[in-house]
Design a protein that fits this description.
The termini are far apart. The longest helix has 22 residues. The chain has two domains: about 220 residues, Aldehyde Dehydrogenase, Chain A, domain 2, CATH 3.40.309.10; about 190 residues, Aldehyde Dehydrogenase, Chain A, domain 1, CATH 3.40.605. The strands form six sheets. The chain has a seven-stranded mixed sheet, sandwiched between helices. A six-stranded mixed sheet has the order 9-8-7-10-11-21, sandwiched between helices. Strands 1-5-4 form a three-stranded mixed sheet, with helices on one face. Strand 8, helix 8 and strand 9 form a beta-alpha-beta unit. Helix 3 packs antiparallel against helix 5 and helix 4 crosses helix 5. It is α/β, with parallel strands linked by helices and about 500 residues long.
Length: about 500
């Protein structure tokens, strides 16, 4: 690790606004001075060209915004402006929807499935060819560690396009005895935590089933979506099949409420999802909503403790906790709780927080100043609610939005930090005695997106897993994704499924 591990400066504390533990190692048994020191290993961004301004991608070309409005996207690790992007208005959205409708009627819906599959396959190959550039941009624009962008995000993006390219000419096997027909124009709105992956989840099945797309990326992370637009253009995708309009919430609202959009796909906060659901009530538009989560990670006393500690670290600190299905609630059996928490604290001390482009970095930058302030608010709230906070003793960069990995003990079910989605590297810890108590605590949440079970007993896996109301359950692992597997939740975590065969249903009418 860097020598910064042992430094502490008032400048750093003031710049980041999160108080540093006064004696962070007082309850730890390890001698951290004996750890390895890591030299810097930055990924070069010299070959990545970022333009000063970017326009909408409509009907196969980049076009100026109708009203000339623009907004800036900031690198959260440096607080420097990366570029200026077009802000979409109703006029821009209408132009994109018309282009998508024309492409749907004249080209894409009439094209044989095997030909559509060739385009999607070509896009997947080009994503692989440009994977290094896409990974670097994803880390610069979003703040996530380059190891995650390079080894997880971009490979999964390509895998989703490969997977749905294979379905394009086999839809009759996906829906035996039924005739699938495309819906038309799909309006899609994606979040900032996995910009390229969420794009793939939505665009790939839409194209495979014969629909055309108008997509809006998050206002803090539009860069890779516009790189994807270049890939579509270079792949020879017919004009208007994929259109990308950048902007903030108002732009997304224009897409959702456009009368010529046939299907809406949204991934984001539960609050916005409720607004979208209300606005679509009474219309004939199909919709899928993948919303918030507060995943419960249940650790039984017979689990492999060291393996489970690694799983917990991956569940909550992966992508700075900016994961809707993060295991943000740890529920550990009472008999091993003290030992488990101590091991978790020891493991947290080894995590490196810093430059997202450094290959040593485990936890990168919080995506935006707004989200950073939100996390700080919850850290303060946890203390006011009587919880005990522990953070790792690492130093933070003086610039950018960074947060130390954090755990809260002495929490109850009624605490807001237990009930509400924080969307940061913050874990709450509760204990249980019996499996029934673990299930009761896991289900005592307005969310139902994901969960985890750690045990060496198959019977516990099936018995507990069947009782936890979550759309995705992992066993002795966490945050493992595959394009063949459906993803979605219950309760306030959303409506519908994405991925796998199930991900085709929202994009077809069955006759």
């Amino acid at each position: 690790m860097s020598d910064q591990k042992t430094k502490s400066t008032k400048t750093e504390e003031k710049a980041n606004g999160i108080p540093k533990p006064t004696s962070p190692n007082s309850d730890l048994k390890l001698d951290y001075s004996s750890f390895w020191n890591y030299s810097d290993a930055p990924e070069s961004s010299d070959k990545v060209v970022i333009e000063d301004t970017y326009n909408h991608f409509i009907n196969g070309e980049f076009v100026e915004p109708e009203k000339g409005r623009r907004f800036a996207s900031v690198n959260p690790a440096t607080e420097e402006v990366l570029s200026q992007f077009a802000e979409g208005t109703s006029e821009d959205v209408d132009k994109a929807v018309k282009a998508a409708r024309k492409a749907y009627k004249n080209v894409w819906s009439k094209m044989p499935g095997r030909e559509r599959g060739k385009y999607i396959f070509r896009i997947a190959r080009m994503i692989q060819e440009r994977s290094r550039e896409l990974a670097i941009i994803e880390s610069m624009d979003g703040g996530k560690p380059i190891r995650e962008s390079r080894d997880v995000d971009i490979p999964l993006v390509a895998a989703h396009f490969f997977y749905y390219a294979g379905w394009a000419d086999k839809l009759e096997y996906a829906f035996p005895g039924r005739k699938p027909e495309p819906l038309g124009v799909c309006g899609q709105i994606i979040p900032w935590n996995f910009p390229m992956l969420m794009l793939a989840w939505k665009i790939a099945p839409a194209l495979a089933t014969g629909n055309t797309v108008v997509l809006k990326p998050a206002e803090t992370t539009p860069l890779t979506a516009l790189r994807f637009a270049e890939i579509c253009r270079d792949a020879g995708l017919p004009d208007g099949v994929v259109n990308i309009v950048t902007g903030a919430g108002q732009t997304g609202s224009e897409i959702v409420n456009h009368p010529d959009v046939n299907k809406v796909a949204f991934t984001g906060s539960t609050q916005v999802g409720k607004i979208i659901q209300k606005s679509l009530a009474g219309t004939d538009k199909k919709f899928t909503l993948e919303l918030g989560g507060k995943g419960a990670n249940i650790i039984f006393e017979d689990a492999s403790i060291d393996q489970a500690v690694e799983g917990v670290v991956n569940a909550i600190f992966f992508n700075q906790g900016h994961v809707c299905c993060a295991g943000s609630r740890l529920i550990v059996q009472e008999g091993i709780s003290d030992r488990f928490i101590q091991k978790l604290k020891d493991r947290m001390e080894t995590l490196i927080v810093g430059d997202p482009l450094d290959k040593n970095t485990d936890i990168g930058a919080i995506n935006s100043k707004e989200q950073y302030e939100r996390i700080k608010t919850y850290l303060d709230l946890g203390g006011k609610e009587g919880a005990v906070m522990h953070q790792s003793s690492c130093d933070l960069p003086q610039n950018g939005y960074f947060c130390r990995p954090t755990i809260f003990t002495n929490v109850s079910q009624s605490n807001r930090i237990v009930q509400e989605e924080i969307f940061g590297p913050v874990l709450t810890i509760q204990t249980f005695r019996t499996p029934d108590e673990a299930v009761q605590k896991a289900n005592n949440s307005p969310y139902g997106l994901s969960g985890g079970i750690w045990t060496d007993k198959g019977s516990k896996i099936f018995n507990t897993g069947q009782q936890v109301r979550a759309g995705v359950m992992w066993t002795n692992t966490f945050n493992k994704f595959d394009p063949t597997s459906p993803f979605g939740g219950y309760k306030e975590s959303g409506v519908g499924r994405e991925g796998g065969l199930h991900g085709l249903y929202p994009y077809v009418n069955l006759v």
